[in-house]
Amino acid sequence: MPADYLRPLLNAANTKIILLVLDGLGGLPITPGGPTELEYAATPTMDRLAVEGVLGQTIPIRSGITPGSGPAHLSLFGYDPLTYDVGRGVLEATGVGLKVNPGDVAVRGNFCTLDASGNITDRRAGRISTAEAAPLVDLLQTIHLPEVEIEVRPLKEYRFAVVMRGAGLHADIPDTDPQQTGRPPLLVTANQPAADRAAGLYQQWVDAAQKLLANQPKANGLTLRGFGTDPGLPKYPEVYGLRAACVAVYPMYRGVAELVGMQVHEFSGDTPADEFAAVASAWDDHDFFFVHIKKTDSKGEDGDFEGKAAIISTVDAALPTLMDLQPDVLIITGDHSTPAAMRAHSWHPVPLLLWSRQRGLPDAQTGFGERACSRGGLGTIHATEVMPLALAHAGRLNKFGA
Asked: What CATH number is given for 4-84+233-393 in this structure?
């Protein structure tokens, strides 16, 4: 169980914690010696909280390891991803209400664009809209294979989720996305003999899907990522003694939150202001709020430095809504770094800001940014240490030993 040493120390204090995650927050200068996206953004509220709070930086997996979003979030929640290995497909499927039982095999799909030779020209099919993707998912839902049940659901934009149910299935299957253009999607193969049946069935499904998509103008192909099954994760109420809530737009993050026992809240809109209003509406019912902002990561992957900085500024402008709730602890961080200069996730440490109403010890930093965080009082910590720090600053941990 994650942080098993904490269980005897838990103290049911009447305090509130917010974990605000700007996906892919960490960045790099776009020009030599210049600012990062976070340093460039207009963040007067975050800068004030940095003065009042304490800064640091996190390592999501291990030094030098570039994380996916699923394991990076598990790490922030206190679950070491090297111990708790959860396929992205399970997170995505759970996030849109698909049940993934032990023995089922779930996977996240991406629509992509293929040239006449079958090579990928756009791994995300131009980020087609959710409305454009919906009829394509309807086509995929018509595919049936003997001896297995298959469910397909749309996610956001070019993404969809698939769950396969049947006897003798195993999820140890690598991605079919080659992670670069100019190459065809990879075949579905097994990492071990136990997964041969599932891999063969999924390849049959892919072959049928390619025929249905072949004449589509934008999204005429697909790739599959993050095969997995129910991981049986310990839940937040038993691990941390918290009534935890999730406010997130994208299904995958709702899925990972649900898998660790958070209550996922429905709300209208997709802006930071909409999300923060949803927190306010549920404030009395929970002790802990995980709030997720996706578009910082999307802009980073698009190489849009200005756009990523603008999203950070939009979050900052909406932050007073959260502060008006008078949380006892507010943590602002990312799950990983996605520098616009790299157009991809990276291994770089992630900025971390911890603000506490009563128990914080401010450091000497005066603004929230990568360089300031590298000099912050928290130092560089593993992301799994964020939850114990949050609990301690919220008065929810008793003394260890006599």
From this structure: 3.40.720.10
